[in-house]
Write a structure and sequence with these properties.
The protein is of the alpha+beta class. It has two domains: 15-581, Methanol Dehydrogenase, Chain A (8 Propeller); 608-691, Cytochrome Bc1 Complex, Chain D, domain 2 (Orthogonal Bundle), CATH 1.10.760. Helix content is 14%, strand content 28%. The strands form ten sheets. Strands 1-31-32-33-34 form a five-stranded mixed beta sheet, with no helix packed on it. It has a four-stranded antiparallel beta sheet with strand order 2-37-36-35, with no helix packed on it. Strands 3-4-5-6 form a four-stranded antiparallel beta sheet, with no helix packed on it. Helix 6 packs across helix 10 (673-689).
Length: 708
């Protein structure tokens, strides 16, 4: 497709765009109160703006012609250093969003004044069994209520005007390591919500609650439970035949922790499911099998949750390639006819196009290079052609993409005029998968089944591999090919917004918010937001003027793990920024950095063997929050800079929970005093090495599976 063809298509598609926008928002008007979603895109009242999750706005006041005049209107500091991942919703001049620890906010869209806040008071002790930071991806709006999930597994409805609770229901067994980080969705007077926890040991499901009363309407599990207790459906009975051993003891996994889309015409809800417990199929299901419905795209009947069809991009997933990445619905011209499709840029590196009515596989193609787990996709069945080097039983292997994925939760966008999907992509990311042969499930700890003490020859190969790269890729889903790409100085980049102004907006880990021309990827504008960006921007009208708003805050899995070689990311304090043409406010960024390199605050006499033992223990218990090789990347303390007083309290903090209310849980059930001392000696050795995050050598990489 040439640039000329793109321009012609833009002209031909304008009428279709206007008609399509009107049809889509007729449904939105019935379902996205407190305001009506106008056909001109005045508000942004759904997670992806419309049911199809395309993240395209028909607004064009901000355009490629005047983008140079876009400026800051207001900023609002939130006082947090944790990750901010939410998509703000905007209705009747009010912004509704979420922040750390499932906090909910309402702000005036014109001024940024906070109208109300709501703290669900999640216990900080739960952080030990929450994957990937204390984040939340946003709210849903319906009939003057604001709905959101919490890290302790609740679904809460608030009055949109006052922020007072209307109802509060527990959606999970809170004695198990469930969490909710994803945004709920609305369908047929119901609130849909999934859950997370497959890194620890749960059985995933999606639930539908009555939007008015909070009563459970239906629940659909993603993996079968204990066969002795019977199956909830024929679909799960059939799925059980693809498992072996006693998978249900560890829970099975398959949590639908993020993406949900809805087609009101087909009355189908679409979601994606996560990885298994453990990650490795020979541990969770001895004897193999596809392990349905792990790492799958599911289509459910909205009225009762019955499974209508499924597609599994990564059968028998062995590499944490969950299928929870955003799903986009669209009608595309394919082979001479218009097909109703669902699209996903998968973690596994392939871009999938499926018939959303039947689940029929249409096409798939690698959207990044250096994929090693599969050599391709069977063009008839959609089944991957698994590479012989990607699996060697319980022996360690190197595989790309890594568990961080070629594309993760960061929302992509579809521009119905250009016909392109804009994907935040990671390329060349390689991981060491070393299964722990004696693994036994322990849901109180990271429970993925990797061997934290592996130091064999495959590790040396990993350390010699080149670093990954980050890109924004414009992908043609009909032709299954790249149309253009922008390469970044960092690996991680945030969610995407497409607009009728022929613009694509996206932020990056280094804090830069950029606008690109949708047709060719030329960068037209940039703004330094002061802190790394993960969340997607949204756009709307306030006082008849187009505004653009996004959450700014670095963290999440990438920020916590802080794998070396990912570029100059920018940790700092979180904020909400809003822009408009002619804006001229100044952004004052609070300082956030240590002054100078770290140094050991105290002297501890420890043998090299003790330090090495501490390194292994750190790689098992600590890296998930404090970063590989004890170099913190974002919101939690960098232990190399710990004060003498902190070191004096080290045992009390780790074993007795002295800082549990600050989000540092006790590990008294997992560690003893000698082990804590060994970890402390390792931390002090890292401080003495005085290695800055930007100077971290690849050879120092931890045994964590998120390696390169």
């Amino acid at each position: 497709m040439s640039n000329h063809t793109i321009v012609v298509n833009m002209c031909l598609n304008i009428l279709l765009l206007l008609v399509g926008s009107f049809v889509l928002t007729l449904s939105a008007c019935r379902s996205s109160s407190p305001s009506k979603a106008l056909s001109d895109g005045a508000d942004w009242t759904m997670h992806g703006r419309t049911y199809d999750e395309q993240r395209f706005s028909p607004l064009d006041q901000i355009s490629e012609q005047n983008i140079g005049q876009l400026g800051l209107v207001w900023s609002r500091e939130l006082g947090t250093t944790r990750g901010l991942e939410a998509t703000p919703l905007v209705s009747n001049g009010v912004i509704y969003t979420t922040g750390e620890w499932s906090m909910a906010y309402a702000l005036d869209a014109k001024t940024g004044e906070i109208l109300w806040t709501f703290d669900p008071r999640v216990s900080r002790a739960r952080v030990r069994t929450i994957c990937c930071d204390v984040v939340n991806r946003g709210v849903a709006l319906y009939h003057s209520k604001v709905y959101f999930g919490t890290l302790d597994g609740r679904l809460i409805a608030l009055d949109a005007k006052s922020g007072n609770p209307v109802w509060d229901v527990i959606t999970v067994d809170q004695s198990k390591p469930y969490a909710i980080t994803g945004a709920p969705r609305i369908a047929k007077d119901m609130v849909l919500i999934g859950n997370a926890g497959s890194e620890f040991g749960v059985r995933g499901y999606i639930s539908a609650y009555d939007a008015e009363s909070g009563k459970l309407v239906w629940r659909t599990f993603s993996v079968p439970g204990d066969p002795a207790k019977g199956f909830e459906s024929k679909a799960l009975e059939s799925a059980a035949k693809t498992w072996h051993g006693q998978w249900w003891i560890a829970g099975g996994g398959g949590t639908p922790w993020d993406t949900i889309a809805y087609d009101p015409n087909l009355d189908l809800v679409y979601t994606g499911t996560g990885n298994g417990v453990a990650w490795y199929r020979d541990l969770r299901s001895p004897g193999g099998g596809d392990n349905l419905y792990l790492a799958s795209i599911l289509a459910l009947r909205a009225s009762d949750g019955e499974l209508v069809w499924h597609f599994q991009p990564t059968p028998g997933d062995n590499w944490d390639y969950d299928a929870t990445q955003p799903l986009i619905l669209a009608d595309l011209p394919i082979n001479g006819s218009t097909r109703k499709v669902v699209m996903q840029a998968s973690k596994n590196g392939f871009f999938y196009v499926l018939d959303r009515q039947t689940g029929q596989f249409i096409s798939a193609k690698a959207f990044v290079n250096t994929i090693t787990w599969a050599t391709g996709i069977d063009p008839k069945t959609g089944h991957p052609l698994e590479s012989p080097t990607a699996y060697d039983g319980l022996r360690p292997v190197l595989v790309s993409p890594s568990p961080a994925g070629a594309h993760n939760w960061y929302p992509m966008a579809f521009h119905p005029v250009t016909g392109l999907v804009y994907v935040p992509a990671r390329e060349g990311d390689t991981a060491l998968h070393a299964p722990e042969k004696g693994w036994k499930s322990n849901p109180t700890l990271v429970n993925i089944g990797n061997d934290p003490g592996y130091e064999g020859p495959v590790l040396a190969k990993l350390l010699s591999s080149p670093p990954p790269t980050g890109h924004l890729i414009a992908w043609n889903p009909v032709e299954q090919r790249e149309f253009w790409r922008v390469s970044f100085p960092v690996v991680e980049s945030g969610g995407v917004l497409a607009t009728a102004g022929n613009l694509i907006f996206q932020g990056r880990a280094d804090g830069m918010l950029c606008a690109y021309r949708a047709t060719d990827g030329k960068k037209l504008w940039e703004f330094d937001a002061g802190t790394g960006i993960m969340a997607p921007p949204v756009t709307y009208l306030a006082g008849g003027v187009q505004h653009l708003t996004l959450m700014v805050g670095w963290g999440g899995a990438a920020g916590l793990v802080n794998a070396p070689g990912t570029g100059p990311f920018k940790p700092g304090f979180g904020r909400i920024l809003t822009f408009a043409v002619g804006g001229h406010a100044k952004l004052d960024v609070p300082p956030f950095k240590h002054n100078g390199p770290p140094s050991a605050a105290i002297h501890m006499s420890a043998t090299p063997a003790t330090v090495h033992a501490g390194q292994i223990l750190y790689g098992k218990y600590c890296w998930y929050c404090h970063g590989v090789i004890a170099v913190a990347g974002a919101s939690v303390p960098d232990l190399r800079y710990a004060s003498a007083e902190t070191h004096r309290q080290f045992e009390s903090i780790v074993l007795r929970g002295a800082r549990e209310q600050q989000g540092m849980p006790s590990f008294k059930d997992a560690l003893n005093r000698d082990q804590v001392r060994a970890i402390q000696s390792y931390v002090l050795s890292r401080a003495a090495a005085s290695v800055k995050p930007s100077d971290t050598p690849a050879a120092a990489t931890s045994r964590a599976p998120f390696s390169r």
